[in-house]
């Protein structure tokens, strides 16, 4: 396996060197379950990684056609996953996706077998690329389960799914009608619209079972509006 001090599996496109004989080649196929690879110089033969040692000298780059917001399918630790592609503040590609009941960011160097684009979304939470946390929040929102039940029950599920609490930062992403979705929120009136609340980042001040009160500054006691959870996204 890779002897560069990491347990990262080989990826298609990696350039490797045979540790015993010193020759170099490029990986063209990876079989994670049987722990073997095929190389470009002899694409018909499998190399058993339990018996033959290779070192990765150059990791495969992410293809240029992928961009932040692309929804991709890939293999990770022997499991087929779906995630969302992002670039972090170091200009490094990574994928945010659900893994073992939590959402994580993983550098593309750790992904086996490359990527297959299955969609794209302009859906953004925060900037969705400035940090790993932004990317995780965006992917979590995109892949959220369908919430069911009364408005109060759905709001509770939404709060639990996103880990929302008093002080959490959220973004108002759309308008709503009075009593929207079974909430007790009043209509979005012209005063609120002119105040520029839509598209603005605010903080959770109070949570009631059929409404959420926001404030402009964290810890502020004066609310800046009452909203249903359906018009909010974590930021």
Major sheet: 5 strands, antiparallel
Which ranges are low-confidence, i.e. pLDDT below 50, for 5 or more consecutive residues? 1-8, 125-129
The CATH topology of the largest domain comes to SH3 type barrels
Number of strands: 15
Bin the helical content: 10-25%
Which word captures the global form? elongated
Order of the strands making up the biggest sheet: 4-3-2-1-5
Q: What CATH first level of the largest domain would be assigned?
A: Mainly Beta
What would you call the structural class?
A: mainly beta
Can you describe what's shown?
- It is built from three helices and 15 strands.
- It has 235 residues and is mainly β.
- The protein has a five-stranded antiparallel β-sheet, with no helix packed on it. The protein has a five-stranded antiparallel β-sheet with strand order 9-8-7-6-10, with helices on one face.
């Amino acid at each position: 396996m890779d002897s560069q001090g990491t347990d990262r599996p080989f990826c298609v496109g990696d350039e490797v060197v045979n540790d015993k004989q010193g020759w170099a080649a490029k990986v063209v196929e990876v079989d994670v379950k049987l722990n073997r690879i095929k190389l470009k110089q002899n694409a018909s033969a499998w190399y058993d990684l339990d018996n033959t040692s290779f070192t990765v000298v150059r990791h495969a780059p992410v293809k240029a056609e992928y961009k932040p917001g692309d929804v991709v399918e890939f293999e990770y630790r022997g499991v087929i996953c779906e995630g969302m592609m992002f670039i972090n503040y170091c200009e490094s590609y990574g994928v945010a996706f659900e893994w073992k009941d939590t959402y994580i960011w993983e550098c593309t160097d750790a992904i086996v077998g490359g990527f297959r684009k299955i969609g794209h979304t302009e859906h953004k939470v925060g900037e969705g690329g400035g940090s790993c946390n932004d990317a995780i929040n965006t992917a979590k929102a995109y892949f959220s389960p369908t919430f069911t039940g009364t408005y109060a029950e759905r709001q509770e599920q939404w709060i639990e799914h996103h880990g929302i609490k008093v002080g959490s930062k959220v973004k108002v992403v759309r308008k709503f009608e009075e009593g929207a979705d079974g909430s007790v929120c009043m209509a979005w009136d012209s005063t609120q619209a002119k105040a520029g609340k839509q598209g603005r980042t605010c903080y959770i001040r109070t949570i009631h079972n059929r409404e959420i009160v926001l404030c402009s500054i964290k810890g502020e006691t004066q609310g800046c509006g009452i909203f249903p959870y359906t018009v909010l996204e974590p930021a």
